[in-house]
Amino acid sequence: MGRWEPNARERLQRSALALFAERGYDSTTAAGIAEGAGLGKSTFFRHFADKREVLFDGQEQLNEALVAAIAAAPAEAGPYEVIGLALDAMGAFFGPERLEWARQRQAVVQAHSELRERELLKIASLTEAFAGSLRARGLGATAAGVAAELGGLAFRAAFAGWIAPDNALGFPEVARRELAAVREAAASLD
Amino acid sequence: MGRWEPNARERLQRSALALFAERGYDSTTAAGIAEGAGLGKSTFFRHFADKREVLFDGQEQLNEALVAAIAAAPAEAGPYEVIGLALDAMGAFFGPERLEWARQRQAVVQAHSELRERELLKIASLTEAFAGSLRARGLGATAAGVAAELGGLAFRAAFAGWIAPDNALGFPEVARRELAAVREAAASLD
Predict the structure, then answer these.
(1) Mean per-residue pLDDT for B42-66?
(2) Do B185 and A143 touch (CB under 8 A)?
(3) pLDDT at B148
(4) For A152-175, what is the mean pLDDT?
(5) Average pLDDT, whole number, for chain B?
(6) If you average pLDDT over every residue of chain A, what do you get?
(7) Which residue out of B83, B130, B146 would a mutagenesis test of the A interface target, given it has the greatest number of A Cβ atoms within 10 Å?
(8) Is residue A63 domain-shared with residue A43, that is, in the same domain?
(9) Does residue B77 form part of some domain?
């Protein structure tokens, strides 16, 4: 184990994004990312498995926060209320200090099919966490599946709305607005 | 261009599945697939870009059938009715003669993370086709997004139900049953 490097993880993330944006994802190496952060290559690999993982850091913690929020929701809360509480909890990962990072990250991911594919896997894992937690509360499998898809949709819309250039609201506010729109749209289909 | 090989495409698909199941996906090569089908390697590459594509053949045609069915739906049809017509049209790709292939294919895809990831991309492209076609009918963006997610969910449930070992129904019947369940579940959330 090497010596402790203050904020190494965050420095590596910032360096990676700057290089991905400047040179392109394919032309950037783990060693280059480490160098850009003023760190050694071995420090990079203590924090991330490869350069792709720099962009998908925090996935498990996000899913865990969602699962914990759903487990802690009041027994009498309906599915949409539970989804709203889960989105609130996820807001802890999307504070104002992460906004610029999130915007740059999204631009890199959208520009690369391999990264878009990985992003879909991330969303699928989030939706599965939603569905599993709702089933654990006693919701039927189909209802949990539907609620999870709608929760995932609200999350994606909230994320897109939060990083939009003209947005001034915090993630939880955008998420509540998007969830209300999804709920209204779902009711309007029938 | 080589000489015409009767049913080469189908023979290659059957050979690929047999080898994926027997030797595993990673240990199977395009040349081995061609050999198993009694064909040359160049014939394989006239039909498929690589061994992965053998499993994802027909994706574009499936999306086109969905888009055409939605465009042809009566103007007065509601979103769920339109989704039902799209699922009916997709049934043309899932006839009884494809059932055994679909079962074997699913087992191979589920066993391999790279293939599961590619499958998610396929589902995302299907959902996008749903949403785009519904927007083209004048449905609002959020409602089209919600309907597309629910249509995609019904499709996945229909596919899983159709290939289930104890299922004796055709794809369109399973799809109608699953769509009704999704519709009922969506209404029950509120």
Answers:
(1) 94
(2) yes
(3) 97
(4) 97
(5) 94
(6) 94
(7) B146
(8) no
(9) yes
**pLDDT number for residue A2:** 54
pLDDT tier at B114, thresholds 50, 70, 90: confident
Question: Model confidence at A81, in pLDDT bands (50, 70, 90)?
Answer: very high
Q: Which residues of A touch B141 (CB under 8 A)?
A: none
d(CA A153, CA A17): 26
CATH code assigned at B81: 1.10.357.10
Token pair 């939060």: residue: A162
CA-CA distance, B124 to A113, in Å (whole number)?
13
Number of domains forming the structure of chain B: 2
Strand, helix or coil for residue B119? helix
CB burial of residue A88 (10 Å; 0-12, 13-18, 19+):
middle
The larger pLDDT score, comparing residue A15 to residue A3, is at A15
Do B42 and B81 lie in one domain? The reply is no
B84 and B18 together in one domain: no
Q: Is B157 on the interface with A (CB under 8 A)?
A: yes
CATH of the domain at A31: 1.10.10.60
Domain that holds residue A46: 8-54
Nearest-angstrom CA–CA distance, B156 and B169: 16
User: Do residues B63 and B46 both lie within one domain?
Assistant: no
Option in A80, A117, A188 nearest B189 (CB): A80
Burial class (CB in 10 A: 0-12, 13-18, 19+), A179: buried
Indicate whether A142 and A104 sit together in one domain.
yes
Q: Are residues B123 and B144 in the same domain?
A: yes
Q: Is the domain of A126 the same as that of A179?
A: yes
Determine the residue of chain B that is closest to A82 in CA distance.
B189
Q: What is the ipTM of this complex?
A: 0.88
Does B1 score more than 80 pLDDT? no
Residue-by-residue DSSP string for B140-190: -HHHHHHHHHHHHHHHHHHHHHHHSTT--S-HHHHHHHHHHHHHHHHHHT-
Query: Contact at 8 Å (CB) between A122 and A143?
Result: no
The predicted structure's pLDDT at residue A1 = 47
Same domain, A140 and A167: yes
